[in-house]
Amino acid sequence: SDGPVYERVALIGLGLIASSMFWAMKRGGVAGHVSGYARSEATRDTARRIGLCHTVCDSIAEAVADADLVVLAVPVGAMGAVAAEIAPHLKPGATVTDVGSVKRTVITEVGPHLPETVHFIAGHPLAGTEHSGPESGFSTLFDNRFTLLVPVEGTDPEAVARLRTFWERLGARVEEMDAEHHDLVLAVTSHTPHLIAYTMVGVADDLRRVTDSEVIKYSAAGFRDFTRIAASDPTMWRDVFLNNKEATLEILGRFTEELFALQRAIRTGDGDMLFDYFTRTRAIRRGIL
Ligand code: NAD
Questions:
Q1: Helix (H) / strand (E) containing 152
Q2: Which atom in ligand 1 lies closest to the alpha carbon of residue 76?
Q3: Could you say which of 3.40.50.150, 3.30.200.100, 1.10.3660.10, 1.50.40.10 is the CATH number of the domain covering 181-288?
Q4: Confidence of residue 217 (pLDDT cuts 50, 70, 90)
Q5: How many A from CA of 134 to the centre of ligand 1?
């Protein structure tokens, strides 16, 4: 609709999220110029081949030097090191944001490296797929999905408003949340479900040795959905659990209690308990849709 929200944007890490951001920026004319950097030469070559970013830089310093907005789109465990690398090269007045799936550790690890002349506003688009890498992105990924922004005390409200407009122009609905609450909510809605999917696929894989390939061959809807989730990037998900330890352990504890209650109901033939439980969960699903 209008002109660019930021004249120059830098994307650090060129995977699913960054590449989707580029195509969405291009679709909406949201940035004047986008430079990109990825650590591996193979990723940079792929990016150049498919026209991802206006300029793909071989040095991270060059990528961020003139940027008005710098987006850290690397695995959560790499955020601190990347922030330290870019810090000396940032333009005064620039905004730095991230897209990591965990917010508390990212804020404590990134913030201290950055000069006081830049605005740091953590963020998290609640959108993704099980695919990764520079070729997995698409322009509609953020459409009608939430992006959560996590400004800390003292963050310049104008810088927050601009970042909000940026995400809205990428198609997202934007809300603000504090880091601790974000990490607990995401432990319930995303992190623990992923862990359960990994477990279920692992169990089936063990079982396959007993039943040949039948588990895979006859895989029905339930199991198929788990395998899709369990195909997600191992580095990204390792970092999520290492960085959202407290909240995921809390939710896993509750999950285990519920699982034991259901296990007991099955053993004792408590049909009422199972029926009531499934009735309650069905109502939750109908409330979402
Ligand atoms: P991805 O695996 O597709 O891409 C990650 C990129 O970071 C790659 O270009 C990789 O080369 C680069 N990278 C990896 N380690 C690095 C390092 N140490 N230094 C510099 N670059 C490095 O991942 P993605 O799905 O785009 O995820 C990026 C971030 O977005 C992660 O923090 C993730 O938690 C978050 N996120 C992911 C999803 C999702 O569903 N995939 C959704 C929301 C947020």
A1: none
A2: 32
A3: 1.10.3660.10
A4: confident
A5: 10
